[in-house]
Design goal:
By secondary structure, the chain is an alpha+beta fold. About 25% of the residues lie in helices and about 20% in strands. The chain has a domain of about 200 residues: Roll (Dipeptide-binding Protein, domain 3). Strand 15 and strand 16 form a beta hairpin.
Amino acid sequence: MLGKRTGVRTAVGLAALALVAAACGSGGGGGSSNATQGRIKGDPNTINSVANPKKGGTLTYSLEKTIDNWNILTSAGNTFETAEVIDAIYPSTFIAQPDLSVKMNSDLLESAKVTNKNPQTVVYQINPKAVWSDGVPINADDFKYVWEASANCKDCDVASSVGYTSIKSITGSGTNNQTVTVVFSKPFSDWQYMFGPLLPAHAATPKPVDEKTLADSWNHGFADSPPRISGGPYMISSFQKDQSVTLVPNPKWYGAKGPYLDKLVFRMITDATQEPPALQNDEIDAMYPQPEIDLIRTLNNMKNVVYQEDLGLVYEHFDFNLENKALTLPVRQALFTAVDRDQILNATVKQVDPDVKPLNNRMFVPGQPGYQDNVTKYGLGSGDVAKAKDILTKAGYKIQGDQLIQPDGKPFPTLTMQYTVGNQIRQTECQMFAAAAKQLGIKVNVQSTDSLGKTLTNADAQHHFDVVVFAWVATPFPASGNAPLYESAQAQGGDWGGNYGHWTNAQADKLLEDALVNLDPSQVRKDLNEVDQLVSQDAYTLPLYQKPTILAYNVKWGNIRDNATSVGPPYNVQEWGLKPSAQ
């Protein structure tokens, strides 16, 4: 999915409404939480629960992408798979739950409260037992480090500065400075999204003494190599590049439960076709693959393997790279008009779940207050090739034979479209996009990428895109989540954040800013829908569908369950363990 992990949350009032209505769905299939084979269903927060797991054992969990950058708070390192590993190592103040609600991390914090509204003040009381694996207390310094890098460092690569730029001060008090007081310079109702995760400030290398050393520690010290220090239930014992990350229990773990495993191994299997046989052959114990019809058939026939299939805050989409000046507005509108989303869904995801429908909003998913159709009224995804050609003709383009000719008389250049290697559904989606483009005289070279993070940031010539398909993996806060995806670099303090296609719209910047500070949930929804309509008008991205998630695992493991948010299944990794009946 990239998944990209976005720093995502919204106004408290809106979030409370959104969380209940958007709880993970399950559609189709049978099974129960006591099954030993096939699909299981149940309460998303308690399915596969075990009160007292056995101590010991090695659980191997597959990752579909390699890890090239270890700081998930950077745009270069902000991938879903990296976040899954980091879930076990760095603590966050609040954690999204499988039912899309949000809970305070009660292992890390004793409390987190808004103590004043003018100026807005939030006080975090850290658990006095909470220490990093080297024994240093987790305290205000760690909050300050994340804030300074995210808001006050022009050379720091930051995935999202949202909220952090609204902070006026952070101070520590009490024993070990574990009472953290955050004062905001302007209202920020989405404060619960922040400080996830925290990084160990005392371990920053080089030690930050000015902006340059701060940037070096952020961009390289925490990014170039695996974390040496943990504030979570596990710590890294070994890393084999492009192969695996092995974790062992953190001896300084301060949480109420676990960890129960002797080892937790994240094995990188970038060819998704190799995951099912690895699970069947006990080479891995759990996988979080892209949903495909052949995979469902295979899983249904696996003994001692169960799986969950859910809908949450994950959606598939096409994006343009607006740095390619040939991708003018008429070309983008024509391409997205020629693409037939119904046809794409029928050939891909509907074979897994026939109830999946085209998604017509980028800010909300069906069931959330605020969801409305901001796509089809602009003709996007309709498959109307005649209309697409008319858009081009009116803009001065000509189709001569099988070649689109630009208004200046030059042939339209070939586009590069990328998808994650081994993902058959995305390969099909790209091929169908290319077939639609061909009808307009535009050639699209479809290529796979082994590093979606490098591709999205155009890190080198081998990882470049003009068009790309991937999925956003959000948290339950649509305002804070979407701001870094659609705000201009200027609005984000000079950094593009998750706006990988470099879309710029001054009106959208203003609306997104209002959504972040407005305490009226109905106005937040109005702001976000206006932004969504602007994205449609500019034909920058095309949402395809709310993406089913599949978690499959060996039945001997307890407390592992799906979490269809940006956190993913390892949200409760400290509770994973062997069931008492497991041999």
